[in-house]
Write a structure and sequence with these properties.
By secondary structure, the protein is mainly β. It has no helices and 12 strands. The chain has a single domain, classed as Galactose-binding lectin (Jelly Rolls), CATH 2.60.120.
Length: 139
Amino acid sequence: MPNSVLRVDAKANSVGGGKGLDTGFLLKPGDILTIHAGPDDKWAAGAPNRFSNANGLGNPLGGKFGLYSRGMQSFLYGALVGSLDGGKTFFCVGTHLSMTVLTEGTLTLHYWDSNNNDNTGDIAVTIQIYSGPTNVSPG
């Protein structure tokens, strides 16, 4: 089970002008992915009242700035999101995610924001992957 701690930067890894953090993890269907970010670990989307944890602005630690929509997807400004297709589509990670992977792809992590010009800070994330048994035939 790979286990890694990485730092996701609000400016460098923003969907609005940055590039997603390539975790180096190639996931496949059936893998179980767990990502955890400390609820007290904060980053910012600009001015002093725009600090939040990985759940994004609008949670108890950040101001109320609503959703940012990109294409057909919407998440709270400042949320931690992931992608398995190079940033074409995203899924919300927040402070804790545990999911069964349904499609193959390399995991990238992103700060959800409309621009990265005034973003500051980074958060630590712990990533665990459980790769289930291979070549299992139905019983």
